[in-house]
Write a structure and sequence with these properties.
29 strands; Thrombin, subunit H; 6-stranded antiparallel beta barrel; alpha+beta; 32% strand
Length: 507
């Protein structure tokens, strides 16, 4: 009987243990479900009507298109999303989880470089039942993450899981900036853009793009916490100063012979300075052929990388990206074999250190029509107008110009994009896509300089000349006399973009 009693007690204990485990599992599931619901309610669907300018005919807009994306509620009654979700937006709406109503939203801050934007909804009570999500720390690779969003235009919230596979500098597809990004193997599709990447109920990333190479499936990229934090700090005063550029360019020093040539010992690493821009923070303090061995507390490896953690290394540029405009940046150099420490002020980057300006958003293109010739500044908006395969289909001379450095004497390139056929431009009707280097024998500094030259011209003819010596000659009086007739014939509202009108018609 004692044995039977012991067995009964054992069975009872086992049942209690099982019941306790079931209860704990149920409580855990309820807790997880409650946490999930809290996150779900903080993920917003964003509807956008976007009307981008047509850089082939810069006085017109392309056909407006409707798109959707995702965002997450953060502190300050703001919704964090991608810049490309609201770029060139004429109308923005926000929709809460399980709420059919769409609320009018407005953009409050945009960083196109970081592909991040902040929007808000002014309607009273919109944020009352929404818990702001906090910004977390970037986990080490191989950590599981959750991606929240509204892919493929769906009305229901989608949650996918994946692994953080690596963290390194990437070209951001939206504006072409080269910044730190996280790579995950969760499924990312159109509509996911702007949605949060979550670990432990905190935002550790903002989804920005899927793999575009077509070689791998279920690969996507997100904006990591350090870049998000930089943008949020930049947004505090409402002025977008962006990521600083110190004004030098480098190459790696993988070659032992190159190391020796520039005074480095075998065990020393760094990157070689090959270009210093005149009007930059580095000018006068950093010299060409200097070797930069560290930035702040980050030693630079021979391949140009720095180590952020035991598992993460990336391009040294990230050490600069961590700074806000106005910060001091410490560089350790080797110059002619001797160590040297310098401190640079992180200043707002120029629009471009290249002669081809970067892509612009939320603004109208610049243009000037003179003698029926359409002149525009060369930028990536224009080049990308040749389509998704622009690197092959755009004119070769425009593509090659991307490899040229700018200088204080030449900041921008001017392109004679097309000729609107008229008597004043006979002989040039088939000229297009050629870069103008000089006006009446004087080199052009930038597009504003070009416009002012034409507005103040006192010569009978204006001679446009390219680098190969080809000339287009337009009679100045005939150009002015035919202007309105040409505009009327081609249904163009004005001879220049708004910002140039102050000078375009000066005598």
């Amino acid at each position: 009987m004692a044995i039977i009693g012991h067995t009964a007690r054992t069975a009872k204990s086992a049942r209690l243990v099982i019941a306790l485990l079931v209860l704990l599992k149920s409580l855990s599931a309820q807790s997880a479900e409650s946490e999930l619901e809290a996150i779900q309610d903080s993920v917003i669907k964003i509807y956008t009507t976007q009307a981008a300018p047509d850089y082939f005919t810069p006085w017109r807009l392309l056909t407006p298109r409707q798109s959707s994306g995702s965002g997450s509620v953060i502190a300050g009654n703001r919704i964090l999303t991608n810049a490309h979700v609201v770029a060139n937006a004429s109308y923005v709406q926000a929709q809460k989880h399980n709420d059919p109503k769409r609320y009018l939203a407005r953009v409050v801050f945009v960083s196109h470089d970081a592909d991040l934007a902040l929007i808000t909804v002014d309607e009273e009570g919109f944020f009352n039942d929404l818990e702001p999500l906090a910004l977390g720390e970037l986990p080490e690779p191989q950590r599981e993450v959750s991606v929240f969003g509204y892919p493929m235009g769906g009305k229901s919230l989608s949650i996918t899981k994946g692994i953080l596979s690596r963290v390194e500098q990437q070209i951001y597809a939206h504006a072409g900036a080269y910044l730190l990004a996280g790579q995950i193997d969760a499924a990312i599709n159109p509509g996911n853009s702007g949605g949060p990447v979550i670990v432990d109920r905190e935002i550790i990333g903002v989804v920005m793009q899927a793999n575009s190479g077509g070689r791998s499936e279920n690969l996507g990229y997100f904006v990591p916490p350090s870049i998000i934090a930089h943008v949020l700090a930049d947004a505090e005063d409402g002025s977008n100063e962006g990521f600083p550029d110190l004004g030098f360019r480098t190459q790696t020093l993988d070659s032992p012979a190159a190391k020796s040539a520039y005074g480095l010992a075998k065990e020393q690493d760094g990157v070689l300075v090959i270009k210093v821009f005149e009007d930059s923070p580095a000018f006068g303090l950093v010299e060409e052929n200097d070797v930069i061995v560290s930035i702040d507390d980050f030693p630079i490896a021979e391949d140009g990388s720095i180590r952020l953690s035991d598992e993460i290394q990336t391009d040294y540029k990230h050490a600069i990206d961590l700074h806000l405009v106005g910060d001091s940046v410490a560089l350790s150099l080797i110059r002619n074999g001797h160590p040297l420490d310098v401190t640079l002020e992180a200043r707002e980057a120029l629009d471009s250190y290249s002669l081809v300006m970067g892509e612009r958003f939320d603004s109208a293109p610049e243009y000037l029509i003179y003698g029926g010739v359409l002149f525009v500044p060369l930028n990536m908006n224009l080049i990308k107008r040749w389509g998704n395969d622009w690197s092959r289909s755009a004119p070769v001379n425009l593509l090659q110009a991307r490899n040229e450095w700018s200088s204080p004497q030449r900041r921008q390139l001017v392109v004679a994009l097309q000729v609107l056929a008229a008597d004043v431009n006979l002989g040039y009707h088939d000229w297009r896509n050629w870069i103008v280097d000089q006006v009446n024998g004087v080199p052009i500094r930038d597009f504003n300089d070009f416009a002012e030259r034409l507005a103040s011209n006192k010569q009978a003819n204006v001679v446009f000349e390219n680098s190969n010596g080809y000339q287009m000659i337009i009679n100045h009086a005939a150009a002015k006399a035919s202007e309105q007739e040409i505009l009327s014939r081609y249904q163009i509202p004005a001879s220049s973009s708004a910002e140039l009108r102050w000078s375009a018609h000066e005598e």
